[in-house]
Design goal:
The termini are far apart. Strand 6, helix 4 and strand 7 form a beta-alpha-beta unit. The chain has two domains: 153 residues, Beta Barrel (Lyase, Ornithine Decarboxylase, Chain A, domain 1); 241 residues, TIM Barrel (Alpha-Beta Barrel), CATH 3.20.20. It is α/β, with parallel strands linked by helices. The protein has twelve helices and 21 strands. The strands form three sheets. Strands 4, 14, 15, 16, 17, 18, 19, 20 and 21 form a nine-stranded mixed β-sheet that branches. An eight-stranded parallel barrel has the order 5-6-7-8-9-11-12-13, surrounded by six helices. It has a three-stranded antiparallel β-sheet with strand order 1-2-3. The radius of gyration is 23 Å and the shape is globular. It binds ligand LLP.
């Protein structure tokens, strides 16, 4: 048995499930995303253990990584899905997840999306406004189909995370004002074709101070308990995702503290709980391997120019995010401070700034760690760059999980009209 995840062999070279990373780059090229199903399974099972004594269901937040085979893998382990578009819906169906295990989240579901979800008996809609309720009601009554509705609460909580991924404050576009929730929940009861199933909350992503979760969950439970006292049924509470993961160390996500918090709040209650973890299931199971193109010095500043760029991993420039970077084959040498940058023509195109790294040379391979979540899924083709190859390692074998376009394919797709300018 090999250790789960990416580990060093006796020659200090990075391996996964007994395969050398350099063998994989020889075969598939760079930049290359590699995912380890061993670590995915480990994290999924740990999460399951975290939520099982509070009657919790897992709905993998597909947005973290919507690769068909990754969704399929979590689906096979028993996961449902948290989706935010009909695109994600179709991918989950193709990956074998039944619509009756899907939660449809998101602030901007359009009318076509609502209709498709209804016709397919989706488990529930987590709705974010009274206006959205009105749209769903109109469509459901026209189709004579019942919509299961959960109200996403905006508890006006600002967790300890980057402003762009904080979703629990009243200034953000997310959720229904906490003071309006009870009134709206009662209104659900007045509408035909609307079946109230509960309340939900998701205050943001990459959260480490779990007291914010605690406060949000207590707020949610208080409203639900009050509604129940007044004779309304509130069968489920959806607690969202958001558990932070450690980008700069190999420490696991803190499922232990999370378990304690949810057990303290919910163990004695009879709510069916749903969880929507994304990052904590998949981030650590992925790496992005990149090759050094060349070094460059400019007035004493050192740049390492690599073949991965912001189109492969936008997190550093978008959220000032830190990703650990290591040589695939460790070597002894002097550490210098470098900016690790891509070939894209923007100053914002960087993977790491002011990073200590052993001096590298052209063709050395670097591992960008913790690139399983919100990495490839946020890719673009800026600068006419083609997608990186993605492979999954399962049972000691490597599988390419995406067909990537060559630039010739891309050109063909755009030759729809032959203008004779
Ligand atoms: N549920 C809802 C309603 C969400 O909006 C999200 C994430 C999740 C669950 C999953 O949260 P997680 O467990 O992954 O924290 N691109 C950003 C992260 C955006 C998160 C969006 N919503 C990043 O790279 O950090």
């Amino acid at each position: 048995m090999f250790p789960s995840g990416f580990y060093r062999d006796e020659n200090d070279e990075l391996n996964v499930q007994g395969i050398k990373i350099s063998d994989l780059t020889n075969r598939f090229g760079t930049p290359l995303f590699i995912y380890d199903t061993g670590l995915m399974k480990e994290r999924y099972e740990e999460f399951l253990d975290t939520v099982k004594n509070v009657n919790g269901n897992i709905h993998y937040a597909v947005k973290a990584n919507d690769s068909l085979n990754i969704i399929k893998f979590f689906g096979k382990l028993g996961s449902g899905a948290d989706i935010v578009s009909i695109g994600e819906f179709e991918k989950c169906v193709a990956a074998g997840i039944s619509p009756n295990k899907m939660i449809f989240s998101g602030v901007g579901k359009n009318k076509d999306e609502i209709e498709i979800a209804l016709r397919n008996n989706i488990l529930q809609f987590n709705i974010e406004s009274e206006e959205e309720l009105n749209d769903i009601y109109n469509i459901a009554s026209k189709l004579k189909l019942t919509a299961n509705i959960c109200l996403r609460v905006n508890p006006d909580i600002a967790p300890d995370t980057h402003k762009k991924i904080s979703t629990g404050e009243k200034e953000t576009k997310f959720g229904i004002d906490i003071d309006d929730v009870a009134r709206l929940y009662k209104r659900l009861y007045e509408l035909d074709y609307i079946n109230p199933v509960g309340l939900g909350v998701h205050i943001g992503s990459q959260i480490f101070d779990f007291s914010f979760f605690e406060k949000a969950y207590l707020d949610l439970k208080n409203i639900a308990d009050d509604l129940k006292k007044n004779g309304y049924k509130v069968p489920t509470l959806d607690l969202g995702g958001g558990i932070g993961i450690n980008y700069n160390s190999n420490k696991k996500p803190n499922f232990i503290t999370y378990k304690k918090i949810i057990s303290d709040i919910f163990l004695k209650s009879d709510y069916q709980l749903s969880f929507e973890p994304g990052r904590s299931l998949i981030a650590e199971a992925g790496v992005l391997i990149t090759k050094v193109i060349r070094n460059k010095k400019n007035k004493g500043k050192n740049f390492v120019i690599v073949d991965a760029a912001m189109n492969n991993l936008i997190r550093p420039t978008l959220y000032d995010a830190y990703h650990k970077i290591e040589l695939v084959k460790d070597k002894i040498g002097e550490e210098i401070v470098v900016d690790i940058v891509g070939p894209i023509c923007e100053t914002g195109d960087f993977i790491a700034l002011n990073r200590k790294l052993i001096e590298v040379k052209s063709d050395d391979l670097l591992t960008i760690r913790t690139a399983g979540a919100y990495a490839s899924v946020m890719k673009s083709n800026y600068n006419s760059r083609v997608d990186a190859v993605e492979i999954l390692i399962h049972d000691g074998k490597s599988y390419k999980i995406k067909q990537t376009d060559t630039i010739q394919n891309t050109i063909l797709k755009e030759k729809m009209v032959d203008f004779n300018f």
